[in-house]
Every structure is written in structure tokens, then in C-alpha cells.
Design brief:
GO terms for molecular function: CoA-ligase activity. By secondary structure, the protein is α/β, with parallel strands linked by helices. The chain is 35% helix and 21% strand. Helix 8 crosses helix 10 and helix 9 crosses helix 11.
Length: 502
């Protein structure tokens, strides 16, 4: 089980485990950085590793001590080793025998390659079984969509996406190796305190592809608009971009396209994907489109069953990249599939062009997260959150919609810390009141009209599981922890000054 983030040693461990037929678990470093390490110990109990690896002993010493006290039988390794620790160099010097070839030849598509933990948006993270067949199925689907153009011999990729998630650990890592790309590990990430490192790396590495979350593209566009040199370096060798985790704001997409045309004279394809830890990549938008929220069509090998649910469709998935289930949780594994063997992620979609169903699907949020007002009107929460963020940019960093069984919708909104510091709570409240009023005035019904808003100044707590590993608010946990705020939103005369009446 690996506690630390992406590194050359981490990559070698991963490939070594694949070859030996030993499952590997790449954990999010967040589990090992502060707090009481309860989630870390839970992960240990679920997958029961024999060896723990951390890149830096000092950085992860507290986490390792917590695991050691929890399970004294564990062995620990790091780069430099230490008392009662194994050094990476010591592991790398293990003699190669015929057992290596025997282990590789014994690997079947159904063999477990790794376990990846879900983000924990609905409770404790679950360990999803990842087979070798699933990993190869993802590459095969990608190859089937390729236009067959040979890549330059010096083609490079710059990777920040963590290997604890499918996007980095299964898709970009494996696809990059398969394509023969040189993988440069990016110490940066889409965060105000770290993105400058990504910019510095882009000056040196002009990648052939680039992937990030929507917030990463927003930060990149801001930087490129102010820095022509960065724009030139970024687009010089770029063939395509990919985005996942959430819908990319249409304003950011349009600015990105404008920059590409200014630099290269053409738009650069931005590939969006839909999937999960349980299914890898299920759909892909692999063509240039002006639409908003498109997730494309099923990738080769994947079959979607679309079950009507009110005005949308519930997505169900079958194919070679779908996991058999969760380790140690047979009941949850069984409950995740319908009677025809389709995995049920609990997500919804609609057709971008109902008259032409080949035109792709649009993500329509979570089935489970949607709710009804007291009128019986359904509220499609993720669609509404995405629309509000776009309409109120850049004043909403996180948002949780409330109103189940209530006469109107409310929202808990966390503005960016920098804007909160600059404008203060009153200034943010005034501007959001204007923007949401304008949003509500666009002929909206009760299911998309927000009547009261709470401006939140106490940040979401990762230790309390209020924020998932994907960086999104966990509505169920937030609403449980902040019941007083929800009560104030529906009070006839809320005394709290943080409540805005729209």
C-alpha cells in the first residue's frame, strides 16, 4: 500500500506489482497528512496489506506510526529506509529469477491488478477491485478511437493527476506507457498554492496532451491570457486535451478555444469523459463540439442501458472495464448491479439532441442526490449547481443545494477564500444577491430558482469528511454537520446575517 503521491519509485512499485501478480493500493496522500488517520486505518483494514511504502519517511512518519500501532505485523519501506525500515534500493536489488517470468505468464485478465478507493462522497471509501482485463480494456477502447497518427519520437506528457484515481493511475499512466510517451511528473496541481509549479514545468515540457479538472483549466487560461510565452509553450506540440471530474464552464472553454486559435490557427480537441472507479471510462466526447456538459457516447466495448427517470435517464453500464465489485463487501457489490448485470452508478443523463441520438449524452447529475420540493417537483441538483457556478463565476467555489420537501430551494455557498478576504462577507453577499437574482429571472421554475442563500465562512473540513478526495463538497455530510444553517434558511425571520433573501 503506497501512502505518498506520484514518483518514479511509486511507478516502479506499481509495474513490479503488476508483473508479480501482487495487488497494489495507491492511496490519496490526503489520508496520511494530518487528522486522526481514521480513514487510513480503515483502508488498511479493508485491503490488509503486508508492506507500506512512503516516499519520504519524515513526511509520513506520523501516518506510518499510526498504522504500526494499529497493525504491528506490517512492514514499512521508504526511499532511504531507516531503523526497522526497508529502503527502496534494497528492494530494487532483489535478484531476478525464473519466478518473474512464471508470475507474468500466470496473470489472467481476471487477476487483480490493484485496488482503488472511491472518493467517499457517500460515506467511508470503498476498495474497488481493478483487474488486469479492466486496465487493458481501457487502453483497447482508447486505441479503437485513435486516428492512427504516429506520435513523434520525443512526444512528452506532463502528469499531475494522482495515481490514486482512475484518471491518473489507470488511464494516463497506462496509456502513456502504451503509446511510448516520456512521462514528466508535475509537482504542481490545480490549487492556488501549487499551480505555479505546473506553469514552470510547461515552460520546459511542451506536452502532446494535457489533462486536468475544470478548476485547472480555469487557472491555466488565466495564466496564458497574461503570458504569451506560456501560451506558446503549451500549444506548441499539443494534439488534444482531456477534462474530467466535473463539467467545464462554457466561458473557460470559449477562452481556451480562442487562445488555441490565436496560437495555432485551429481549435485543439478537448476530450471529456464520463466514468467512475468501478467502470473506468464509460463514455467519451472525442469530437469538437460547442455543447455544454456533453459526455459523448459509449466507448468501444461498453454497453449503456438508459432507464427513464422523470425527464432524464438513469445510466447503467456493462463491459470489459467494469469492476466485479468491492473487496470484502459482497452485499454492496451485489447491490451495485441490476438483474441483467449492468452496473448502476446512480447517475443520470439526457440526450444532447433527442432527434439525433448519435449526438452524444449530457450528464444530468446524481439520481440519489436529486430530490423533490413539497410540490412534487424534481430538482436535478448537479445540473443546478453547475448552472449557478457558471452564472455566478467566480464567486462560488463550493455549493450545496437544499430544499427536499420544502417550498423553495436554498443553497450553502462557499466563496473562494481570496475573494472573501478582499471583499468581505457583506461584499460577497451583495454581489451574489445580484447574480442569483439575475439567474432566477431567466424564466425559471421552482426547481431551479434559489430563494435563500447562506454565505459560508467556515471552510469545509476534510477531517470531518465534508469534502471528497475529488475536492467536491459531500452534501450528505455537510447537511448533517450544519443543520443549524439549513434551519436558518427556512426560518420565517432568520437572525443570521449570513442568510441572503433573493
Amino acid at each position: 500500500m503506497v501512502l505518498s503521491g506520484n514518483s518514479i519509485e511509486h511507478a516502479l512499485l506499481m509495474l513490479g506489482c503488476y508483473s508479480a501478480g501482487v495487488p497494489i493500493v495507491s492511496l490519496s496522500p490526503q489520508y496520511s497528512q494530518g487528522g486522526d488517520f481514521a480513514r487510513l486505518r480503515n483502508c488498511n483494514d479493508v485491503v490488509r496489506p503486508k508492506l507500506i511504502f512512503a516516499q519520504s519517511e519524515p513526511e509520513f512518519s506520523a501516518a506510518m506510526a499510526s498504522l504500526e500501532a494499529h497493525n504491528p505485523a506490517l512492514r514499512f519501506a521508504s526511499i532511504n529506509g531507516g531503523p526497522e525500515r526497508i529502503s527502496f534500493a534494497e528492494m530494487a536489488q532483489t535478484p531476478v529469477t525464473s519466478a518473474v517470468a512464471d508470475a507474468i505468464s500466470a496473470i489472467k485478465p481476471s487477476a487483480v491488478a490493484k485496488y482503488l478507493f472511491t472518493s467517499g462522497s457517500s460515506g467511508l471509501p470503498k476498495a474497488v477491485i481493478q483487474t488486469h482485463g479492466m486496465l487493458m480494456g481501457t487502453i483497447a477502447a482508447d486505441e479503437a478511437l485513435s486516428d492512427g497518427r504516429p506520435l513523434p519520437d520525443d512526444a512528452k506528457m506532463l502528469e499531475w493527476m494522482p495515481w490514486s484515481h482512475i484518471a491518473g493511475g489507470n488511464y494516463t499512466f497506462n496509456a502513456g506507457l502504451w503509446a511510448g510517451l516520456t512521462n514528466y511528473l508535475d509537482e504542481g496541481k490545480p490549487h492556488p498554492d501549487h499551480f505555479h509549479k505546473t506553469i514552470e514545468n510547461l515552460y520546459e515540457v511542451s506536452p502532446i496532451n494535457f489533462g486536468s479538472m475544470p478548476i485547472g483549466y480555469a487557472m491555466l487560461v488565466d495564466a496564458m491570457e497574461a503570458d504569451p510565452k506560456l501560451r506558446s509553450c503549451f500549444f506548441r506540440n499539443l494534439q488534444f486535451m482531456h477534462c474530467g471530474g466535473a463539467a467545464l464552464d462554457i466561458n473557460v472553454l470559449e477562452r481556451l478555444e480562442h487562445l488555441a486559435i490565436a496560437e495555432r490557427g485551429v481549435k485543439i480537441p478537448l476530450i471529456t469523459k464520463y466514468g467512475s472507479t468501478e467502470v473506468q471510462i464509460a463514455t467519451m466526447l472525442h469530437w469538437i463540439d460547442e455543447g455544454d456538459g456533453l459526455i459523448g457516447n459509449p466507448v468501444p466495448g461498453i454497453t449503456l442501458k438508459l432507464v427513464p427517470k422523470d425527464s432524464v435517464y438513469e445510466i447503467r453500464i456493462k463491459g470489459p472495464t467494469v469492476s466485479p465489485g468491492y473487496i470484502g463487501e459482497p452485499e454492496k457489490s451485489a447491490a451495485a448491479f441490476d438483474d441483467e448485470g449492468f452496473y448502476m452508478p446512480g447517475d443520470a443523463c439526457s440526450f444532447a439532441h433527442p432527434e439525433d441520438r448519435s449526438g452524444g449524452l449530457v450528464f444530468a447529475g446524481r439520481i440519489e442526490g436529486n430530490f423533490k420540493l413539497d410540490t412534487g417537483t424534481w430538482v436535478h441538483v448537479e445540473e443546478l449547481c453547475s448552472a449557478l457556478k457558471s452564472a455566478c463565476a467566480p464567486f462560488i467555489e463550493q455549493i450545496v443545494i437544499v430544499g427536499e420537501g420544502k417550498p423553495y430551494l436554498g443553497a450553502l455557498i462557499w466563496p473562494p477564500a481570496t475573494l472573501l478576504a478582499e471583499r468581505g462577507q457583506a461584499g460577497i453577499a451583495e454581489r451574489l444577491s445580484q447574480l442569483i437574482s439575475a439567474f432566477n429571472s431567466r424564466g425559471r421554475g421552482s426547481s431551479t430558482r434559489v430563494r435563500r442563500v447562506a454565505i459560508m465562512t467556515v471552510p469545509l473540513s476534510a477531517d470531518d469528511s465534508e469534502i471528497t478526495l475529488k475536492g467536491a463538497a459531500s452534501p450528505r455530510v455537510v447537511l448533517s454537520n450544519r443543520k443549524d444553517v439549513v434551519t436558518a434558511l427556512y426560518s420565517p425571520s432568520p437572525a443570521d446575517t449570513q442568510i441572503i433573501h433573493i
